[in-house]
Design brief:
It is built from 10 helices and no strands. By secondary structure, it is an all-alpha fold. Helix 1 packs across helix 6, helix 2 packs across helix 6 and helix 3 crosses helix 9. It is globular, with a radius of gyration of 18 Å.
């Protein structure tokens, strides 16, 4: 790896942490799909199929969110167990290049899982070009904010076991409590306001609008998109300013 060729370094890291694990241990792909498909199954069965499309849309969000936040586990492993981050710190490779490479590997890792949900989406109805582009843009933004959050948390963990605890909490707070797998009207009105604190709520609104599940006016879509993008930028800013690249 060399900083004179940052793009090459990013691709090498993406290959090392994304392609190689999928090739050597395909069962990793099943672990990615385990939670999204489980939620899809239970939501569909409980609603007698009414929330099938909500489940497909939510499965896409949860898949990207999971691989984004799992960045904390990979980077904690590289930093504390393998001491690989120390090697990177001592090399010409900068923190943004390192993080970009690992983040890209996580995105690559999610593609087979996303492909399953795309097939389910296509089987259950046609996909318009506008809907497809909208979904891609939403998922990339969710991936960016989840990656920024995962990187920031990873730099503060000294024990990889701590990441498993926080991964569950983050997943609960960003994918279960917000209306990712169901309409927000399903949440009791007395506590519905809590959902608006999660950026994935706005991602869900946009996804459900792209799927044609909920009416979404242009103004509402712009507000939801603005909140989602600002949330991603805020988490990226926190990652750049507060994350610990070098151990004290």
């Amino acid at each position: 790896m060399t900083e004179r060729h940052p793009f090459r370094s990013i691709l090498w890291l993406a290959y090392m942490n994304g392609i190689v694990p999928m090739r050597t241990q395909p069962l990793y792909l099943l672990s990615i799909l385990a939670s999204p498909l489980s939620f899809l199954f239970f939501v569909t069965v409980a609603s007698h199929g009414v929330l099938l499309f909500y489940g497909i849309a939510g499965g896409m969000i949860l898949t990207v969110l999971s691989v984004g936040t799992s960045l904390q586990t990979d980077m904690s492993h590289y930093r504390t167990d393998l001491k690989f981050q120390d090697v990177v710190v001592a090399s010409p490779v900068s923190a943004p290049v390192y993080v970009a490479g690992i983040a890209l590997s996580e995105l690559i890792y999610s593609l087979p899982g996303l492909g399953v949900f795309v097939v389910l989406w296509r089987i259950n109805g046609p996909i318009s070009a506008v809907a497809a582009v909208s979904v891609v843009a939403i998922l990339i933004t969710v991936w960016a904010l989840a990656t920024a959050l995962g990187f920031t948390l990873a730099t503060y963990f000294n024990d990889i076991r701590e990441t498993f605890v926080f991964s569950s909490i983050v997943s609960l707070g960003l994918s279960v409590l917000p209306p990712v797998y169901y309409p927000i009207s399903s949440i009791p009105s007395s506590v519905r306001w809590l959902a608006y604190f999660s950026p994935t709520t706005y991602a869900a609104f946009l996804m459900q609008g792209a799927f044609g599940l909920q009416p979404l006016s242009l103004s509402s879509a712009l507000v939801d998109a603005l909140v989602l993008v600002l949330s991603a930028f805020a988490l990226l800013a926190i990652a750049m300013l507060k994350a610990r690249w070098r151990d004290p």
